[in-house]
Amino acid sequence: MPESKGRSKATYTPPPRAKAADKGPNPRWFVPVMLGLMVLGLLWVVTFYITQQQFPVESLGRWNLGIGFGLMLTGFMMTTRWR
C-alpha cells in the first residue's frame, strides 16, 4: 500500500508581542486629589455624625452619608489608576 505524503508545516512563528502602552507616571496633582477626596469624604461623614445630622447640609438629611461615601469611593477608585 502506498504511503501518503505528509504535509510540510511552516516553522512556528509566535505572534508579535503587543507593545504595552507606556503611559508614564501620573501627573503631580493625581495623588493629592486622590487623598484629598478620601479625607474630604471621611470628614463629611464624621461631621454629619458629630453634629447630630445638622451639618454639612441639613436639608439633605441622610443623603449626606451618600455624598461622603461617594467622595471616599471616588478616591479609592483613583487608587486603581495610580502608577
Task: Describe the fold and architecture.
The protein is mainly α. The chain has a domain at 30-79. It is 46% helix and 0% strand. It is built from two helices and no strands. α1 (30-50) packs antiparallel against α2 (63-79). It is elongated.
Topology:
Blueprint: H1 30-50, H2 63-79
In this structure, how is the largest beta sheet organized? none
What fraction strand?
under 5%
Share of helix among residues?
40-55%
Q: End-to-end span in angstroms?
A: 67 Å
Count every helix, treating DSSP H or I runs of 4 or more residues as helices: 2
Quick summary:
This protein has 83 residues and is mainly alpha-helical.
Q: What brief labels describe this structure?
A:
elongated, single chain, mainly alpha, 83 residues
